[in-house]
Design a protein that fits this description.
With 283 residues, the protein is an alpha/beta fold. Helices cover 33% and strands 24% of the residues.
Length: 283
């Protein structure tokens, strides 16, 4: 029954997404057997003037634990807004859906150790997305970036860490990476060696993915030294206009069992977008 409900929901998402995006695409993750990889779905937003005779830069965008779609099957506002932001900056955008192909709709309410979709899965999704973008005739393979939020930000860290053998073996590497309020503990423990310039944007008051481990990762990393910007008084999900609220349904966080705060901070939102655009222009 659970699988049937998930399948029905996935089909609804597919239908809704087709009406939202300029183009719906599919491509293989590096996850799964070589002859039977997980096939990912994505929403492709091409920048104006980009085509096979004039390829341009592109970014792959990675959603957080809530997924790329809302409960009505619509692309979440954050993904829509950032795709538009990158398009205005001259970058095509690929929104990567890691959950629907695996019959999941969200991970936020699942305990970290029991999630069916792990960071290992999502890292391989990110590597597959880079490989897919590099093969597109309208994309410059030397100007591909990775950008993620929360769980997707952790995906970006994992997919740019040369301490993972699959990252080190990738034939195409990203030119830059940006992680909004990622969880940094796992890659801090493993040791982080950047494959490309990395920018982390974190909230100083974040009690879901604490900023401390990210600062430690930036200090201790090998390779290009990651950059980090912290915003005073900002909670998880600061880049929105939503009011701050306590999510008691989230079992993970700095204080397990007590919930986490999520919500926007206007000053941090504006500053982080300006910092993002400055960073990608430099790389």
């Amino acid at each position: 029954m659970k699988l049937a409900r998930a399948l029905a929901f996935c089909l609804a998402l597919a239908s809704a997404a087709g009406a939202t995006a300029q183009e719906r695409v599919s491509f293989p993750s590096l996850d799964g057997a070589a002859n039977a990889p997980v096939v990912l779905t994505g929403l492709w937003f091409p920048a104006a003037g980009v085509n096979a005779s004039s390829p341009g830069p592109a970014v792959a965008l990675f959603h957080g634990c809530g997924g790329a779609f809302d409960r009505h099957g619509q692309l979440v506002r954050r993904m829509q807004e950032y795709a538009a932001l990158f398009n205005r900056a001259g970058y095509s955008a690929l929104i990567v859906d890691s959950l629907t192909p695996r019959y999941e709709v969200e991970l936020c309410t699942q305990r970290t150790g029991s999630r069916r979709v792990t960071q290992s899965n999502r890292r391989l999704d990110a590597l597959g997305a880079v490989a897919y973008l590099a093969e597109r005739p309208d994309v410059d393979p030397k100007r591909i970036g990775l950008v993620g939020w929360s769980n997707g930000g952790s995906t970006v860290l994992s997919a740019t860490n040369l301490r993972h053998r699959d990252v080190a073996a990738a034939l195409v590497q990203p030119a830059f990476a940006v992680a909004f309020y990622p969880g940094c503990e796992v890659d801090l423990k493993r040791g982080y060696e950047a494959v490309a310039p990395l920018l982390m944007l974190v909230g100083q008051a974040d009690d879901w993915t604490a900023p401390g481990p990210c600062r430690a990762l930036a200090r201790e990393a090998a390779g290009p030294r990651p950059e980090i910007e912290g915003y005073a008084g900002a909670y998880h999900g600061f880049d929105s206009d939503q009011p701050v609220r306590l999510r008691k349904d989230v079992p993970n966080g700095v204080n397990p069992g007590q919930g986490v705060h999520v919500g926007g901070n206007g000053a941090a939102w504006r500053a982080s977008q300006a910092r993002l655009l400055k960073f990608i222009a430099e790389h």
